[in-house]
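Researcher: I'm preparing a figure for a lab meeting and need a structural model of a single chain. I don't have an experimental structure, so a prediction will have to do for now. The sequence is pasted below. Please return the structure as tokens so I can convert it later.
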Amino acid sequence: MTCVCFADVTPLEIPGYYATVIERLSPERRRKAEACRTKQGRLLSAGAGYLLSYALSLLGVNEACAAYSYNQYGKPRITGQEHLDFSLAHSGKMAMCALSDSGQVGCDIEAPGRHNPSAAKRFFHPNEYHKIINSDDPGRDFIRLWTLKESYLKALGTGLATPLSSFEIVPGNPPYLCGNDEYHFAEFHLENGYHAAVCSLEKAACEPIFVDFSTLQNN
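Model: Understood. Here is the structure written out token by token.
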């Protein structure tokens, strides 16, 4: 099973709401949120941590009691729950979590309007770059490929130790990784214009869960 959760963190700006989220997290997730330099960074980190806590609760795991270990590239795992893999992402005002009990998983989310052809030329696979510059909507295709590629790297757990240009993703329906049918992708076009992607070892499409932080004080 792969669980995918989204949340708009804007309600966490309301006095007391951020504290409500933080107190429900493990010491490790609290530390990460509080270490962020900006207020928005803290809201996003805490929001993503809460989504992880929510997803884990569906499997009967209490994140508030969790301890973490990290691989050589910094990807976290939950100690004692090695069969679980998770990935967190955030952009703008949106936080995201993907949790899998069936192997590696990675996710990424991006705000609308991002289009950087120079970055695509420098970092993407040449075939991906040519697709973007010849597209009727280069901004859309740039964001699609960026989120797909980031989700794959997060699933691998290597980060940018694996160069973005070293592999090609074809953003078809569904998207696929050239020369490798082990990993599968799901994409999410949110109503507010954000675009997200999940990479996992499961073929099944993920039905996302949207968490409303404005209702926290009522729970």
